[in-house]
Design brief:
The structure holds two protein chains of two kinds. By secondary structure, chain A is mostly beta strands. Chain A contains five helices and 32 strands. Among the domains of chain A are: 126 residues, Trypsin-like serine proteases (Thrombin, subunit H, Beta Barrel), CATH 2.40.10; 49 residues, no CATH class; 96 residues, Immunoglobulin-like. In chain A, the strands form seven sheets. In chain A, strands 1, 2, 3, 4, 5, 6, 7, 15, 16, 29, 30, 31 and 32 form a 13-stranded mixed β-sheet that branches. In chain A, strands 18, 19, 20, 22, 23 and 26 form a six-stranded antiparallel β-sheet that branches. In chain A, strands 10-14-13 form a three-stranded mixed β-sheet, covered by helices on one side. Chain A starts with 10 loop residues before the first strand and ends in a 26-residue tail after the last strand. Chain B is mainly β. Among the domains of chain B are: 124 residues, Sandwich (Jelly Rolls), CATH 2.60.120; 80 residues, no CATH class. Chain B is 11% helix and 40% strand. Classes of the chains: A mainly beta, B mainly beta. Chains A and B meet through helix 5 of A and helix 1 of B.
């Protein structure tokens, strides 16, 4: 039975593991001197912490025998880290467990960080290496893709689709009530789009301490376990100082949300070849066609109707050339194989047509906040391509309206005895008689830790007071009809 | 111009927070949208009166249909006699009835499964209805085709009861959405153009004999009477199930509208327009019933003359009052309780309205009667009240058919034509002013069918 994290007779121990070969975790704890780091997320409706910036950690290792020196060919890990990229991008993770006595074993390890090695520096004199880690989002942040158009997907379903596209298998997604009419990628960042669609319904995406990709609907903290008793209750002697902060910028008198409705437009030409392309005998030409609009389905290609393949003398060669078309939302890849052996083929005309998806930022929803601030302060949400219909925009605007009607302080509890199992989003009850009457609940939006001699955390909390107007929201499959559960926005 | 787009239905998942906007209001809007679809203008099916039969099949009616479903419904009036009816799609016989005997004047409704005929979904077929007598010939017997349409029985999920204290599973919530989606598909059938006709050279001018599958009690009409009828009083009457609802004669003042005043077509100077809405509520019609509509001109003085009257259109429109059994659906806002059967807003209202629609809505895919009006014989041709997006038309001429509609003056476009016989499709979204609900006329083609599908 491990001791309570708040027990004064607890003895933290750390474990550091690295996947040097890309598949097997190697325990490097014997070289671990210290580590520190930070995890942070945003509250509901706030601008999201960018992918790759959610978590960062610094790990100090004893570099025995040049084990972690990437340029030393006699180093123990040279086979894995001696390549052109060194240690960059190698998965690493940190865990902390609590023992009952110094040197006693740990019965339960808690992962406190999962990510990849981002940077490193050696101190030859001290014979140490410092590794800088980033959360798993860093691994995917530059990954780009194109897709066809998906219709009527829930926010979480689109994130799942994107996660599958990026080969992210460890996911935990809240079922969102919001459906997006049309979603697609056009050579865009996969992770960036996940974050963007989460913003559209006021939710958040992040990689948690265990490396799981999470999507949380803005109601996440208002229902289920989060709405009930706190996960942890801290007394004033459990931390050194409460530092309350407020941001008057969150107060608004009006919220405006821009909508980008989409509709299927009339059939039209979407791409026209501007220069003849040459296909040598036995050769292949690949043409990337960037269309003027995204399209649900392209019209069929018919020789001498919307394309023409001829020889330099004008002979029709469409019979000896085969064409295959791969269509994405706003681009198409056309492959032409000239199976002839003598004549060089020229693609002289090509027109792709279909019913385009048209639309843009043409509508705006506004919600006024009654009597919160004495003068005009407008919060505008614009440029989000997933805000395609009025229902969703209204929902977001009303949530931000209520959020912006009052201040929501943020507290930082410094020097908390490290709680290895603490999650971002956990509800914590605390008190500070000098600043607040009674006890206060807050949701964890930041954890900063240092582990050297001990294991200490600074915990940042978003005030839970009136963060959500009601405490009895209706949950599908759980709440009875009647005066038992209330509607979300 | 954006179409009144189907708002779609929400998907529910266990553990989801219930959203006012994304769940309940979206579902409410979908149900209200369905009511609008159900009550959308429904033009008369124009049949023909067949007089006289022999023991060989004779053509009774010709038209076209866009194949959507495998149940074919025929409705006709028959006065005594024993007959057999055959329907062909192109050259394929899709249905042949048994011998059908009427005792007196009867309304016959036949339903046929045409699934075995090897038809292609969404393909356009010409349709021929033929009729024969068992033996011998009769010169006086008559038959009146009232409706010919494809339909299908809906596969609808079981709706949850939605009483207070019920805990609905995600599947039960989704059943509400799936029910609405099924009704939406059923309500998205094509509509056939209404063939505007003019009177012929007889003493009793048989202008329209047709049927309407009843939805609401307001019947819109526009007819024209020739201005100069020297020496006699030409009467033009509209009858429903044998009841004369209106008679227009020399004492009837014409009804001028922006659309029909001035000189909208070359013959306009010669005619008076009469337009209005007839109240059917006293006739005791029930929803889904096919009733007879008859426009006839009576010439008591037996003055034989062509073109005494024209009939532009006849169609039902929604009544101004809420239909019986329908509950108005309010909107939910943040913080409202998700109530079941008591209080307001309540989920049971959505559920009950869906059930109300489910008892009435079905795919109705009528055949379009063969008709040809040259481009210059305005206002003859196929009349539509726009609902869908794509116009399918068949022309045997190289001359482009024309589409005309009134929007801040009469607008006119030429539709693409082929050098050979062909069905063509035209995206009505290209016509910015031709909004949904606006009437338009298609001329210079043999068939015209409007659909939501290209």
């Amino acid at each position: 039975m491990p001791p309570s994290p708040l027990d004064p007779h607890r003895y933290p121990q750390s474990k550091f593991e690295v996947q040097w070969d890309g598949s097997t975790w190697t325990d490097e704890s014997q070289y671990l001197i210290s580590h520190s780091g930070e995890l942070k997320i945003s509250g509901p409706g706030e601008d999201l912490v960018a992918p790759g910036d959610v978590g960062a950690a610094t790990v100090l290792l004893w570099n025995e025998g040049g084990r972690f020196s990437w340029l030393r060919s006699d180093g123990g890990l040279f086979a894995h880290i001696g390549g052109s990229a060194g240690m960059y991008g190698i998965p690493a993770r940190l865990s902390v467990g609590l023992g009952t006595a110094p040197g006693a074993g740990v019965s339960e390890w808690h992962r406190i960080f999962t990510g990849v090695i981002y940077d490193w520096s050696e101190n030859s004199r001290e014979r140490t290496v410092t590794l800088e880690l980033r959360d798993l989002g860093h691994r995917y942040v530059q990954q780009r893709a194109s897709t066809t158009i998906y219709e009527d997907l829930r926010v979480d379903e689109w994130i799942q689709t994107l996660a599958t596209l990026a080969s992210i298998s460890d996911v935990s997604l809240d079922p969102s009530p919001v459906t997006v009419d049309y979603c697609w990628l056009d050579d865009e960042s996969i992770l960036g789009e996940m974050w963007e669609v989460a913003r559209a319904d006021g939710g958040r995406c992040y990689f948690d301490r265990g490396g799981t990709l999470r999507y949380e609907h803005p109601s996440h903290w208002a229902i289920g376990d989060h709405a009930g008793s706190p996960a942890w209750t801290l007394d004033e002697d459990d931390y050194q100082l409460v530092v309350p902060e407020i941001s008057v910028d969150e107060l608004v008198s009006q919220v405006r949300v821009e909508i980008q409705p989409r509709a299927v437009g009339p059939d039209q030409d979407l791409y026209t070849l501007d220069q003849a392309r040459v296909i040598p005998p036995g050769g292949t030409a690949v043409i990337d066609c960037r269309m003027s609009y995204p399209v649900l389905a392209l019209g069929t290609l018919a020789a001498n109707d919307n394309y023409e393949i001829i020889s330099s003398g004008g002979e029709d060669l469409s019979g000896t050339c085969s064409m295959s078309l791969t269509t994405y939302a706003q681009r198409a890849r056309l492959q032409i194989i000239n199976s002839g052996t003598i004549q060089q083929a020229y693609l002289t005309m090509l027109t792709l047509h279909g019913s385009p998806l048209i639309g843009g930022p043409t509508l705006e929803i506004s919600e006024d906040v009654a009597g919160s601030v004495p003068y005009t302060r407008i919060r505008g949400i614009s440029g989000n391509p997933y805000l395609q219909n009025e229902d969703v925009a209204r929902m977001l605007a009303q949530m931000l309206r209520d959020r912006g009607a009052r201040l929501h302080p943020v507290y930082t509890l410094r020097g908390v005895p490290g709680i290895p199992s603490l999650n971002l989003g956990d509800r914590i009850r605390f008190q500070d008689a000098s600043a607040i009457s009674g006890t206060r609940d807050g949701f964890v939006i930041g954890i900063r830790w240092t582990a050297a001699e001990g294991f200490v955390q600074d915990v940042t909390l978003l005030d839970a007071e009136a963060l959500f107007p009601y405490s009895n929201y209706f949950v599908v499959g759980a709440t009875a009809l009647g005066a038992h559960g209330r509607c979300w926005y | 111009m954006p179409l009144p787009e189907w708002p779609g239905t929400p998907t529910f998942a266990s553990g989801q927070v219930m959203s006012a906007q994304a769940h309940l209001n979206r579902l409410s809007r979908a149900v209200r949208h369905l009511l609008g679809m159900y009550q959308s203008p429904r033009t008369a099916f124009v049949g023909t009166r067949k007089v006289g039969l022999t023991s060989s099949y004779a053509t009774w009616w010709t038209g076209a249909i866009r194949h959507k479903a495998n149940t074919l419904k025929l409705v006709w009036r028959q006065y005594y006699e024993t007959v057999r009816v055959r329907v062909k799609y192109g050259s394929t016989t899709v249905y042949e009835s048994d011998w059908i005997t009427a005792v007196g004047e009867e309304q016959i409704e036949e339903t046929a499964d045409i699934g075995g005929a090897g038809l292609t979904d969404n393909a356009l077929y010409t349709v021929t209805v033929e009729i024969r007598r068992q033996t011998g010939a009769c010169e006086e017997c008559w038959f009146w085709l009232l409706d010919l349409a494809e339909t299908e029985s809906l596969s609808l999920p079981t709706l949850p009861v939605c009483n207070d204290e019920d805990v609905l599973t995600a599947a039960q919530w989704n059943a509400l959405s799936q029910y609405a989606e099924a009704l939406h598909r059923a309500g998205s059938g094509p509509q056939a153009g209404y063939p505007a006709v003019r009177s012929k050279l007889t003493t009793v001018y048989e202008m329209v004999r047709g049927g309407i599958r009843h939805v609401s009690n307001s019947l819109v009409y526009q007819v024209w009477r020739k201005k100069n009828n020297p020496g006699y009083n030409f009467e033009l009457g509209i009858e429903v199930d044998g009841t004369r609802l209106i008679t227009l004669d020399d004492s009837s003042p014409p009804n001028y509208t922006l659309e029909n005043s001035g000189k909208p077509f070359p013959l306009a100077e010669l005619y008076y327009p009469y337009t209005g809405t007839l109240d059917l509520s006293s006739l005791g019609l029930t929803a889904g019933q096919v009733y007879r509509v008859h426009v006839r001109g009576d010439d008591p003085d037996s003055v034989y003359e062509h073109d005494r009257g024209l009939v532009d259109y006849l169609y039902e429109i929604p009544d101004s009052s809420s239909p019986s059994g329908w509950t108005a659906l309010p909107e939910w806002t943040h913080g409202d309780y998700v109530r079941g059967s008591a209080g307001t807003p309540r989920v049971k209202a959505i559920r009950d309205d869906l059930a109300w629609l489910g008892a009435r809505m079905a795919l109705y895919n009528p055949a379009c009667r063969h008709w040809y009006a040259p481009n210059d014989e305005f206002p003859l041709g196929f009349w539509f009240v726009r609902r869908g997006r794509y116009l399918h038309y068949y022309s045997e001429s190289e001359k482009s058919p024309r589409l005309r509609y009134y929007a801040d003056g009469w607008q006119e476009v030429s539709l693409p034509a082929e050098s050979s016989d062909a069905w063509r499709v035209y995206d009505l979204e290209q016509l910015g002013l031709l909004t949904v609900g606006r009437r338009y006329l298609v001329q210079g083609c043999e068939y015209a069918i409007e659909d939501f599908d290209p």
